[in-house]
Amino acid sequence: MAEYIIETAKGKWEIVVGLEIHCQIISKSKIFSGASTEFGDDPNINVSFVDAGMPGMLPTLNKECVHQAVKTGLGLNAKINKYSEFSRKNYFYADMPTDYQITQFRYPIVGEGEITIDLSDGSTKKIGIERMHIEQDAGKSIHDLSPTKSYIDLNRAGVGLMEIVTKPDFRAPEEAGAFLRKLRSILRYLGTCDGNMDEGSMRCDVNVSVRPYGSDELRSRSEMKNVNSVKFVMQAIENEAKRHIEIYESGGTIEQETRQFDPTTGQSKLMRKKEFAHDYRYFPEPDLPPLILSDEYIDSIRAEMIELPDAKKQRFVETLGLTPYDATVLCENKEHAAFFEKAAAGHDAKKVANWMMSDFFAMLNKKRLDIAQSPVSAENLGNLVELISKEVISGKIAKDVFEIMSETGKSPEKIVEEKGLKQVTDTGAIETIINEVIASNPDNVSAYKNGKTNLAGWFVGQVIKQSQGKANPAIVNKLVREKLDK
Amino acid sequence: MATDTQTVKRTAFLSRLKIEDDKIEATKEEFNKILNWIEELNEINTDDVEPLIAVNNTPLRIREDEVTAGNCREDILKNAPSAEYDYFAVPKVVE
Q1: So what's the ipTM on this one?
Q2: Do A33 and B69 touch (CB under 8 A)?
């Protein structure tokens, strides 16, 4: 990919960025209690005495959360640690009733891994994963219901989280965006997190620093908390890098600090400086012994792994002849990829991909439908492409047929039959029309013969129009020229 | 190993404990007594000894993913100094 260099009057700079992503684990109950994880219920309904931090209540680890974490680790091509430990991270905040978060510190469940990101110019890049650990989520504070009070809802307190920490491998805002999209895609394929950034089930902290272009130093970074869309993450990086550069170039220094990104302005403001950084005083969680996983257990989860977007993309390119770009778009979403495969079975896959990525997605967008609700079935889309390939209908008529398919859900064959849209390939019938057009336009015929040969296109158009679009364009083209040149 | 008044104040802040100024000196002495006692442990050679995480060597208990608790809002809010609209109500905290 083209390098991302920030050039000022004084020099050239590059950026060094790392991400920390909190992903809510999909499970029925919380990571250390039996309360439901349901989102959007009435306040404080899905709260157990464990979640409320009542004295004497003990956490018990949810089997499914461990399973989901291992699965995710394998999806990140990461090392699964057979030994991991829980720790207490101590801090006081109103939405954290125990005054500590149970998390993993020294020994996380997942170690180093990497994922491949797809960039807009078709190139790819590997991004390193530093680690992934599991922990509990905090409750939610609501600040805008009262001028003097904050309201606390503990429904989210104790929901399982996976915190994924990347290596500082990003050198452009676009790379961070591509990473989040790929991570979300992998999590959704695996069914371990729904990846909805707007609902907060995936939340991103962004660490930004800059350095003179070409140097390998690592300067102080600032961290922006809870940047909650792919677009905002890219914007936050861009603006924060500029802020650093302005400070360096005017002789200042950057100190490690935590900042709050404001989506309405795209700028960030200071939350706290390093000297006020939290002192979390981690220590091993006395209520939970270490988590030990066996090789058999890890292998059994490995055996459950499905084909992930990268492998699927490669297969679509190699065996179905798609371009890397088409394959990337179709594979980002598991349901889209499955629909495509079903539609392309036995038909021209490249053409099916074109139809999906143009008319089909446009139709779903317009109707605001999910692919599962599509009025056009995968089989019918494949059959429509087949009708074009077999020259039963022209590409132009196919657009009309598709329109009717998306209104009625009928099969393309039935529509072609009912509306009599079959392409006319019978040369006799086409010749009859050509003769009529030639007979009724003597002026254009003589103009053609006097050298205005581009009028041939006009004749072709007239003939197809008179056939109500049903005449095969290739045959019309050939016959029109033959007649006019005679 | 001895601690200073600054560390006592910092520790009190982190623990959200209010220690009156005239008690700082006495608290420091108490801290030092504890630290001195702990200091004795440093005399023991712990090379090649794995850190002990827990004294009882029970394996981790793990539960099935089932909803078995919750739906007890009244009980949950009963001890709250203030609750409004089914939420805990606390003095405004905006960082």
Answers
A1: 0.86
A2: yes
- Check CB contact under 8 Å for A90 and B14: yes
User: Across the strands, what pairs with B69?
Assistant: A35
Model pTM? 0.86
B19-46 confidence digits (pLDDT tens): 999 999 999 999 999 999 988 888 889 8
Calculate the CA A131 to chain-centre distance: 22
| Residue from A29, A67, A154, A271 whose CB has the most chain B CBs within 10 Å, to mutate | A29
Whether A34 sits inside 8 A of B66 (CB atoms) is yes
The verdict on residue B33 lying in a domain is yes
Residue A271's identity, in one-letter code, is: M
Q: Measured between alpha carbons, how far is residue A149 from residues A347, B89, B94 in Å?
A: 63, 6, 10
- What's phi and psi for A166, nearest 5 deg? -90, 165
Q: Using CA atoms in the order A446, A452, A455, A456, what is the torsion angle rounded to 10 degrees?
A: 90
A27, A147, A152 ranked by CB distance to B87: nearest: A152
| Number of domains chain B contains | 1
Name all domains of chain A by residue range, CATH numbers in brackets. 6-301 (no CATH), 307-419 (no CATH), 427-485 (1.10.10.410)
